[in-house]
Amino acid sequence: MIEKYLNETPYILKEMIKNEKELFDNKAKEIVNNKIMHIILTGSGTSYHAGLISKEFLMKVTNLYVEVLYPFQINKFIFKECINSLLIGISQEGASLSTYKAMEFAKKNNSYTASMSANEDAYINEEADYIFRINCGEELFGPKTKGYHATILNILLLGMRIGLNNGTISDEEHNSYINDINNTIDNMSSIINESKQWILNNSDELKLAHDLKLIGSKDNYGNVMEGALKILETFCCPTTGYEFEEFVHGIQNSINKDSYIILLNSGKEVSRINTLIEILRNWTSHVFIIGKDLQNKTSKDFSFKFINNENFLIFEYILPIEMMCHIIPPLRNYDKTLLKDPMISKKMESKKVI
Question: Are 343 and 146 in contact (CB under 8 A)?
Fold first, then answer.
């Protein structure tokens, strides 16, 4: 299922871009007219990670203060009386009770609210002043991939429309960003297809992973966290993600000969990251690098012609990890379509059960 949804993703993203003015312009005008100064993105798991990796661009094009918080972090001190806030609750299925409660709390504290979901009848819409539909279609498989990319794009497109209406970006800048996004999307299918062969070539080793760490520079931090979650969900082995600066502040002490490392090397901090790779390969033979124009490339490295646009590489580097989560679990004799407890959402009251 993951491969099917990944192959659909470029087409879905293109369709979203075609309709972006109709979807976002009028609501963006209202947001600007309401003098919103503070945007809070909230959600759990993949929804949180989509917000996390979109944050910097959203701040750049809106010139607004943007926070990304888990629902449990929402409290009264976030909403200042002197600043108009907009809390955007993100939930692909639209049934997250923690996100719903965060939106409910925000409204009680005089914040505007918005929902962002792929479900037209999302439960979280009940607490929304604005509804920003994620037009990615159904994604029935638990670990979301298509929805992750579509949520990111939804946030970016909304941000650009706000920027156009508050004057922080021009029509020319908006069109240039759209062109850059389209170029990146055009490259996605090649990444998906070529990463498949790389993963198959290394599958005998990858299927044995039992302690896996993802590392990346700050421009890929949201992808690192999302990749760790996806591997954890599908490999069912302990997996953690780290920004590389944080990794070298003590986490490196946990590495031994049995550790597996996947490093997303987008070209930031090239010298220091190459030094880190050299150090890691002295400690374990299980080091896999994903990047562009890699030095000292080995068969364990996926060196691809990423577009590497500074704003939109966020769509590229997660793709090989997502494909890995399709190929490797069956080789570990794990059925990634099965939930350990299909009733856990009901038992733990984490989702609205219809």
Answer: no
**Cα→Cα distances 231→38, 47, 106, 283, Å:** 33, 16, 33, 22
CA-to-CA distance for 316 and 39, rounded, in angstroms?
Answer: 26
CA pair distance 185, 252, nearest whole angstrom: 35
Rounded to the nearest 10°, the torsion over CA 289, 293, 294, 296 is 150
Q: Do residues 325 and 337 touch, judged by C-beta distance below 8 A?
A: no
DSSP 8-state secondary structure symbol assigned to residue 349: T
Instruction: Give CA–CA dist 105/101, Å, rounded.
Output: 6
What's the CA gap between 110 and 108, in Å, rounded? Answer: 6
**pLDDT tens readout for residues 162-187:** 999 999 999 999 999 999 999 999 99
The total number of residues shown for the chain amounts to 354
Rounded to whole angstroms, the Cα distance separating 135 from 142 reads 18
Name the least confident of 9-13, 44-48, 80-84.
80-84
d(CA 255, CA 291): 22
Inter-residue long-range contacts of 268-271, CB under 8 Å, 24+ positions, other chains counted: 268/217, 268/218, 268/219, 269/217, 269/244
CA distance 206 to 266: 22
- Token reading at 102: 């965060």
317 in Cβ contact with 195 (< 8 Å):
no
Predicted confidence (pLDDT) at residue 351 exceeds the cutoff of 70 = no
| Residue keyed to tokens 């600066």 | 245
Q: Which domains does the chain have, with CATH numbers?
A: 2-169 (3.40.50.10490), 189-331 (3.40.50.10490)
